[in-house]
Structures are given as structure tokens and as C-alpha cells.
Please model this.
Amino acid sequence: MSVKAILTDIEGTTSSIAFVFEVLFPYAQKHLPAYVRACAEQDPNSPLLQAVRDEVQEPQADAERLIDILALWMEQDVKATSLKALQGLVWQHGYASGEIKGHVYPDAVEMLQAWQQQGYRLYVYSSGSVQAQKLIFAYSVAGDLTHLFSDYFDTTSGHKREAASYARIAQAIGLPAGQILFLSDVVEELDAAQASGMRTCGLARTQGSLLGHTTVASFNAIDPMTF
Model:
């Protein structure tokens, strides 16, 4: 059963973790409070804000309380779906204004383009919202790369360390899990994908290996035909 689709993580895989923690997160920390206040002023019952209230089970939380919650989540890097949605909207402004350019490793750009031309279907699975994923690739340092991908998946498909999430994604893609190659820099994610039946390849861009998985230092070293 040969590989027909490639599912890739973003942070530490296609893109630098430093970009997320040194560019995206500080930008959100700076601009998210004003965005939440404006949102609450326009519509106190905004679904975006209501989603935060629902996640913390505080139905009466006002804008300032929500800002405090979101700030704590960002400090702790909590993978809350409502936070990711709000961050994505704030980042959209940063990308559109030119303040942010999405980082993508040159080797990732090169091989993603080559794989698409070779007929592989490409997908993204990240803890960041689908909107945030699209922004990184739409406003990347290499230009708009969104045309390379057939679809995007985030935590609405489940957490990245649970095998069931990858089974759902395989079903959504419409291929047996064994025909999908998953790329990530996190061994627990690779373990979960492997448990679902997917093939796996770990990215360790500096050094070391991801136990139990083929590990490479760049996309150039990945040949989907060998998995």
C-alpha cells in the first residue's frame, strides 16, 4: 500500500518554533486585549467570546475577565480552540498589514512543491486554528503557498496526541490510514498517528532522533516512496 497523501505538522516541522514563540505569540499578547474589548463592545454575546466562556464555564465573564483568561492560556500555551480562533483573527491583521511574514523552511517549500507536482495530496494538521495555518502559508516568506494543500485540520479534529484524531482525519481525507504519511517533530504525535495506522517520519532539525520513527533533519531527506 503506497503513500498517496502527506499530512504535515507546522511548528518545528515546516516552520520554526521560534517564529511561533518569538513573533506570533508576542503579537497576539500585544493586540488581543484591544480586539476582545472591541468585539465585546460591538456584540457582548459574540460567539467568539461565548466560546471562551463555555470553555471555562463562566457564562457571565465580562471582557476584562476574558482577557485575563486568554492571557493565562497564552502564558501556559494552552491548546484551547477558542483562544486559537481569536489569535487567528488578530494575526490576520498582522499578516495583512505586512507586520508578520510566515516562516517556512526553504527545504519544506521545495519538497512540498515537488510532492504536489508528483501527485501527492498534501494536508496540514496543527494545534493552531485552520485560519492561522492558512495565514502562515498565504503570507509566507516564499509567497502564497496555500495552493499546495488540499485541506487543513486543527484541534476540532481532536488532540494531536490521540490516535482517534488521526483516524478522523484519514476518514475526512478519504484514504486508508496506511496511505497517509504524517510528518512531525513531536514523538507523541508520531506515536498517535502510527497507532491509527498512518506511516510516520520525524523531523529533528538540530540533532537527535524520535524514538520508534524514521527521523530526518530536513524535508530533502524524505522520499514518500520508501514508506
Summary: The domain at 5-16+103-226 is CATH 3.40.50.1000 (Rossmann fold).
